[in-house]
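Handoff note, outgoing to incoming analyst
You'll be picking up this chain. Sequence as last confirmed:
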Amino acid sequence: MTGYVMFRKDRLGRRGGGVILYIKESIQAYEIKLEKEAECEEAVWCNIVTGNSTLTVGLVYRSPNISIEENEKIHNAIEEVSKRVCIIMGDFNHGHIQWISLQSTGREVQEFLNLVQDSFLSQHVLEATRGEHVLDIVLTSQKEFVDNVKICEPLGCSDHNQIHFIIKVKGEGNRKIRYRKKFTKEDIRT
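Most recent structure output, in case you need it:
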């Protein structure tokens, strides 16, 4: 896409699939790698420079028939990234979580819900994104980062609804610059 930098991680061993994240060229961003035990098959992570700080953004796809090992890596990744200022989004295929009441069914789903709560992450998508389920979610380390979440019609032939939202972080334009004159002996005359 013209005007955007692409970050992607293709699905290995099969045709198609993977994740892709586009960030406007005008935003300073670079891909990062997580610790080995948190390196997921279908996840991409990058840092966005926002003024004097950095925002870690992650895009994750969690297959409904995921292996125990890969599921553990996703949990490790969320645990690692949640210690930073972050936004984690994607299709997690946990449709049995009632995000408003924070209830779930099943051990695996409850473990994920516990992880989100123990990591002090806020989940912003409260309406169904596929059928009657909330499969696609947006997690943030600070609740005020995300605003104006809207669930829209699917794009193209997708069976998932689009999620539109505003990320509210201070950018380069909000940075204060101070100028000081450097005084030397030559500047002081008597």
